[in-house]
Design brief:
The complex is a heterodimer of chains A (112) and B (113). Chain A has 112 residues and is an all-beta fold. In chain A, 0% of the residues lie in helices and 50% in strands. Chain A contains no helices and 11 strands. The radius of gyration of chain A is 13 Å and the shape is globular. By secondary structure, chain B is mostly beta strands. The chains are: A mainly beta (112), B mainly beta (113). At the A-B interface, strand 5, strand 9 and strand 10 of A face strand 4, strand 5, strand 9 and strand 10 of B.
Chain lengths: 112, 113
């Protein structure tokens, strides 16, 4: 059983650099979500894909953030010109027809 | 403005006793509620859920109660075990959110042996 896989698990970068994260959802799931979680907060929705179509984006997703899911399978989340406020855990989740989402272990980003 | 609220940041209970975690919501369009459990440095893991057409759902040691009129739900864990120590998140969906879950801030449960 392969769950949601995220890579890398940890990323340390300097302010101003670009970073890219990858998410491989559960293979039969057509819905894919990106969330961000900071200390003391619950996960906050960033964006959502149905197959390869990006259907919803949160206002939290500034112009420096871009997400893709080119073939409706894996997804990437890129942050350009990182800022210290981008430091967080970035979570990917996938789902099928129901409401339940399955989360990956996340990518912990630290911007120095 | 937070639509899902978990007002207790932490809860400590003795092993074998009942743990009750509470959650309030403000959006009456929410029609599905979930509880997730999270260990440090891991993603949230689904625990139990309830549809708004029900007022109770049970799975082993875990029971979720929903009071729609009060816009309140609770998670009961009985008996509590030390392995239950984690952060518990309440989440809600509905109202055309396309499966996007709205999470509370979480409650850290500590079960003492």
């Amino acid at each position: 059983d392969t769950g949601v896989s995220q890579d890398p698990r940890h990323k340390i970068t300097k302010r101003g650099q670009n970073v890219t994260f990858r998410c491989d959802p559960i293979s039969e799931h057509n819905r894919l979500y990106w969330y961000r979680q900071t200390l003391g907060q619950g996960p906050e929705f960033l964006t959502y894909f149905q197959n390869e179509a990006q259907l919803e984006k949160s206002r939290l997703l500034s112009d420096r953030f871009s997400a893709e899911r080119p073939k409706g399978s894996f997804s990437t989340l890129e942050i350009q010109r990182t800022e210290q406020g981008d430091s967080a855990m970035y979570l990917c989740a996938s789902g099928d027809r129901g409401e339940k989402l399955f989360f990956g272990s996340g990518t912990q980003l630290s911007v120095l | 403005d937070q639509q899902v609220k978990q007002n207790s940041p932490s809860l400590s209970v003795q092993e074998g006793r009942i743990s009750i975690l509470n959650c309030d919501y403000t959006n009456s369009m929410f029609d599905y509620f979930l509880w997730y459990k999270k260990y440090p440095a891991e993603g949230p893991t689904f625990l139990i859920s309830i549809s708004s057409i029900k007022d109770k759902n049970e799975d082993g040691r875990f029971t979720v109660f929903l009071n729609k009129s009060a816009k309140h739900l609770s998670l009961h864990i009985v008996p509590s075990q030390p392995g239950d120590s984690a952060v518990y998140f309440c989440a809600a969906s509905g109202g055309g959110s396309q499966g996007n879950l709205i999470f509370g801030k979480g409650t850290k449960l500590s079960v003492k042996p």
